[in-house]
Amino acid sequence: MKFNRIIARLDIKGPNLVKGIHLEGLRVLGKPEDFAKYYYENGADELFYQDVVASLYERNSLHEIISSTAKKNFIPLTVGGGIRSIQDIREVLRAGADKVCINTAAIKSPQLIKEASLKFGSSTIVVAIEAIKQLDGKYFAFVDNGREETGREVFAWAKEVEELGAGEIVITSVDREGTGTGYDIELTKKIAMAVNIPVIAHGGPGKSEHISEVISDGHADAVAVASVIHYDFIAQQLSDMQNRTEGNISFLNSGRKQFGKIEPVSLRQIKQHLIQNHINTRP
Fold this sequence. Notes:
Blueprint: E1 5-13, E2 16-21, E3 24-30, H1 32-41, E4 46-51, H2 54-57, H3 63-72, E5 77-80, H4 86-95, E6 99-102, H5 104-108, H6 111-120, E7 125-133, E8 139-143, E9 148-153, H7 154-164, E10 168-173, H8 185-194, E11 199-202, H9 208-216, E12 222-225, H10 227-244, H11 250-253, H12 267-276
Helix pairs in contact: 1-3, 9-12
């Protein structure tokens, strides 16, 4: 039986978990290890760490966090950000990751996908596609957190990624990311219909219904969720997190309980909703 996976995505900057809107305006939410532990204990099928400033330094700096997480949480861990070579992939896998996610390097050197999938196995190689919808309705792929256009049409690029040997695609709607307005169903469905490998939808969920919609209508094999579960965790753990977190924590200090269009829910609530809507997921 096929199970639709719920993946907790954690964007990392330095020692902190951060979150923005449209991949920008990052605000500190807390310590990633606290969130990872909670999500593992509450039913996440996978964890996905993304080093959101790796492009500035051209390297992934999460090795210590990866190692610590892998020792404590026994579910698949995907790591992305700043991975540009076979050696980078090897180091991240040795640190404890089960999969690596590449974007910029895949665009600049598509043969890296092929080489990596042959060396480490297709199931280990995930390619991220950051998509922005243009005024004429076309979708183009971007890199550097949606800042730099690549000139590649998204659906053609997705097909090429599959042909080169990638095992999965994470499709991010930069337009929807962090907004709580729901996934881009059209984008996800077209990607899912264009390829035969699993498609992970990312960007936009603000409530459980958005997640069931992108699986049922968008044909996503899995969903990556962030804000909607992060804010649920924050509401429960705020006082402790304020004492432990470094950097710009003005968002935490604000004590906010309302998050725009986002209606915080837990992973358990999401899974219960999916089960009630006859969507196969692990309890």
